[in-house]
Specification:
4-stranded antiparallel beta sheet, 20 strands
């Protein structure tokens, strides 16, 4: 990101305990320590406890230690052909396990859209997205879908003002993501740029809001308990569709039963004319799903709905 001119947090890459101590001392609390590798969304520790930060860092072969960004987070999805960036609706993710953003970090306990930052102009592209899409000048574009989580810094120093990218994410198919000619159906998508004769039709936005609530298994984000039966899915399909539906993640079939098979078992997504209605529908559907020992946050989009 630094090479591409993408605004982001200052950071150090550390491989020894001495380097870890130097980086932690340079930034001070709260400490942001990220395992350098795939960790199912649980490789990041954000803590004011120096010993906890040091322990997490030294347990990893290689870590990234960053300055803390204290503003609200928003995820800005964008489609790109490597030349033009078309931003989609912004969303806000909830990473902590417990209500009020308490508890350990997770792969995500829910989200809502549109986020309070407002809808971007289609076809415009953002400062972080454009260089992230282009990457190195000597490399071909590879990633048709970007999702950089941004934070709006509360620091009023010119160096820190505005949005900064927390981490680069490329969808679909992390960690790499398919290239323009490598999509699952084998079709090459139309270029978004004016140079291509087959320009896509303008994006059509839904006026609805959407809220997603994740139902996690017992002991998540620690070692989750699996194999527990899940019931109530037919009730959601019968009583809440088409405004609410279930997306499976950590589930499997055990005969005729659906059972848990991971930490984040499933998510319930609902739409509504506003966030309040979307939240009501989402939590009504969540209440129908029964999984012994399961957990979910009860405050997804609550503040945004109250402020709307």
């Amino acid at each position: 990101m630094a090479a591409a001119g993408v605004p982001t947090a200052r950071s150090y890459v550390c491989t020894t305990p001495a380097e870890v101590d130097e980086a932690l001392d340079a930034f001070g609390a709260p400490y942001v320590v990220k395992d350098d590798g795939l960790a199912a969304g649980k490789g990041v520790v954000v803590t004011a406890d120096l010993e906890a930060a040091r322990a997490h860092a030294n347990a990893c072969e290689r870590v990234v230690i960053e300055e803390f960004l204290d503003g609200p987070e928003v995820s800005l999805f964008a489609i790109t052909d490597g030349v033009t960036v078309v931003p989609l609706q912004p969303a806000q993710d909830f990473k902590r396990a417990l209500d009020g953003d308490e508890g350990p970090n997770t792969g995500g306990m829910g989200a809502y859209s549109p986020a309070a930052v407002g809808r971007p102009e289609a076809g415009g592209g953002s400062t972080p997205d454009r260089p992230a899409a282009h990457g190195r000048r000597d490399a071909p574009p590879r990633h048709p879908l970007l999702r950089p989580p941004l934070r709006r810094s509360r620091d009023h120093e010119p160096r820190c003002a505005g949005h900064r990218v927390q981490r680069p994410l490329r969808r679909p198919g992390d960690p790499g993501g398919p290239g323009p000619s490598e999509d699952p159906a084998g079709r090459r998508p139309a270029r978004l740029s004016e140079r291509h004769p087959r320009r896509p039709r303008p994006l059509r936005w839904s006026e609805d809001a959407a809220v997603t609530v994740v139902i996690a298994s017992y002991n998540y984000p620690g070692t989750p308990r699996t194999g527990d039966p899940i019931t109530g899915l037919d009730e959601v399909a019968a009583q809440d569709a088409p405004h609410a539906y279930v997306l499976h993640a950590g589930t499997r079939h055990d005969g005729d039963d659906v059972v848990s098979a991971g930490g984040r078992v499933l998510s319930v997504t609902a739409t509504g004319t506003d966030l309040t209605q979307a939240r009501e529908r989402a939590y009504a559907a969540v209440a129908r799903v029964r999984l012994d020992g399961s957990q979910h946050r009860t405050d997804i989009a609550a503040r945004a709905a109250a402020d709307a």
